[in-house]
């Protein structure tokens, strides 16, 4: 099976990377040149952009596998296993679970990028969520992009080109991904995860073609229940008191979601760390080793903070889809709703407010997303947002 087979809805981007991986004309001289190469040719630095869930990281690793496979742009089986395990000697990966990527992490990756490939044609360096770099951190990366070592290829992933500083954008070749069709995502989830096609289709539609979220909704009943609670809380708002109570319910749902994602992994990491330090489960931790465990705990706290923010953002996206559906009903549009499972309640909500009110709520959700991103208290941001969502009793 080809490495490109599990990527969906991105045929144009796949064609670009497949052609580049098989480009025999890429030389050491090319590696130091500008990324302005003809369509289909190879270059030393790439930027994959696209909306969340479009498969940026999956495409980056598929391209890396093709580059690290010996003369096979379709992907060598051994290289594929090593890339999936992140153990290939010529692969460097930076993916953070914090709110930002630290400058030390980028410096370390830049240093390792200076080595020549050991077994493959190229040395491939991938930065996921490159938009999480500050300007100072980006400038460290810029030096590596301006003077790349021969046979080193950089692949950055970000939602859009605007998320990177202009000097970095000028050093990379951009490939933009599109939002996959609901049917394509549903077919992938049903085939790969073995779920019923109807459930996969609903998950793909409600996730708005976000592949990762579609997988989670299709395979995790608790995730589906939490999404239903989000819509119920918003549709039940009639007064300011309702808005305050709904804000608390949404914050609790986001915290539960974040906990379900991180709790099991945190326990496994702690157990693995204790094992590597030679401490038996339940045993006393020697004072000399406590600092190492404290460092792990601090990393896990930072990951929990990001996971909570991500959970809140997922709630905002679900609410945007809800009020988008309400607005479509109000305007008499024949566009298919996202939330078909609650379409009767959507119609009732549409009848109890004006399109102007719904637009104000959509604006309030966008404002709340920005405020939470700027470290405003999530509870206050949610309350201010939901006060605009009040509807007259039907």
UniProtKB/TrEMBL annotation:
List where Basic and acidic residues composition bias occurs. Answer: 260-273
Q: Name one GO molecular function term.
A: DNA-directed DNA polymerase activity
Q: What species is given as this protein's source?
A: Terrimesophilobacter mesophilus
Task: Please name the InterPro entries in this protein's record.
Answer: DNA_Rep/Repair_Clamp_Loader (IPR050238), P-loop_NTPase (IPR027417)
Q: Name one GO biological process term.
A: DNA-templated DNA replication
Region Disordered: start and end of each range?
260-286
Please provide the record's keywords in A-Z order: Nucleotidyltransferase, Transferase
Protein name, as recorded? DNA polymerase III subunit delta
Pfam families given for it? DNA_pol3_delta2
Q: Which domain of life is it from?
A: Bacteria
**UniProt-listed Enzyme Commission number(s):** 2.7.7.7
């Amino acid at each position: 099976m080809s490495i490109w087979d599990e990527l969906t809805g991105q045929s144009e981007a796949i064609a670009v990377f497949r052609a580049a991986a098989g480009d025999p004309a890429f030389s050491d001289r090319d590696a130091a040149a500008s990324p302005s190469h003809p369509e289909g040719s190879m270059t030393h630095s790439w930027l994959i952009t696209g909306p969340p869930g479009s498969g940026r990281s999956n495409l980056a690793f598929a391209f890396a596998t093709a580059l690290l496979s010996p003369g096979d742009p379709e992907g060598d089986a051994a290289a594929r296993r090593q890339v999936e395990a992140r153990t290939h000697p010529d692969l460097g990966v930076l993916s953070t679970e914090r709110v930002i990527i630290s400058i030390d992490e980028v410096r370390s990756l830049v240093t390792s990028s200076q080595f020549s490939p050991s077994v493959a044609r190229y040395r491939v360096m991938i930065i996921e969520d490159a938009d999480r770099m500050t300007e100072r951190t980006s400038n460290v990366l810029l030096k590596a992009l301006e003077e790349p070592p021969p046979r080193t290829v950089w692949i950055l992933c970000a939602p859009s080109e605007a998320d990177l500083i202009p000097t970095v954008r000028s050093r990379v070749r951009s490939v933009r991904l599109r939002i996959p069709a609901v049917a394509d995502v549903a077919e992938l989830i049903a085939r790969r995860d073995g779920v019923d096609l109807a459930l996969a289709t609903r998950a793909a539609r409600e996730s708005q073609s976000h592949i990762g979220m579609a997988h989670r909704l299709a395979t995790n009943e608790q995730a589906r229940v939490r999404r239903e609670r989000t819509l119920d809380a918003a549709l039940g708002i009639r007064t300011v008191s309702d808005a305050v109570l709904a804000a608390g319910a949404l914050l609790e749902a986001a915290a539960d979601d974040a906990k379900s994602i991180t709790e099991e992994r945190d326990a496994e990491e702690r157990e693995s760390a204790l094992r590597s330090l030679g401490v038996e489960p339940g045993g006393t931790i020697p004072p000399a080793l406590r600092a190492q465990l404290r460092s792990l705990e601090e990393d896990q706290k930072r990951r929990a903070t990001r996971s909570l923010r991500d959970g809140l953002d997922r709630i905002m996206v679900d609410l945007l889809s809800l009020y988008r559906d309400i607005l479509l009903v109000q305007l008499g549009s024949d566009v298919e709703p996202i939330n078909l499972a609650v379409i009767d309640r959507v119609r009732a909500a549409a009848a109890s407010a004006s399109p102007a009110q719904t637009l104000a709520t959509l604006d309030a959700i966008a404002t709340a997303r920005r405020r939470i991103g700027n470290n405003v208290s999530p509870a206050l941001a949610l309350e201010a947002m939901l006060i605009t969502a009040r509807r007259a009793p039907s």
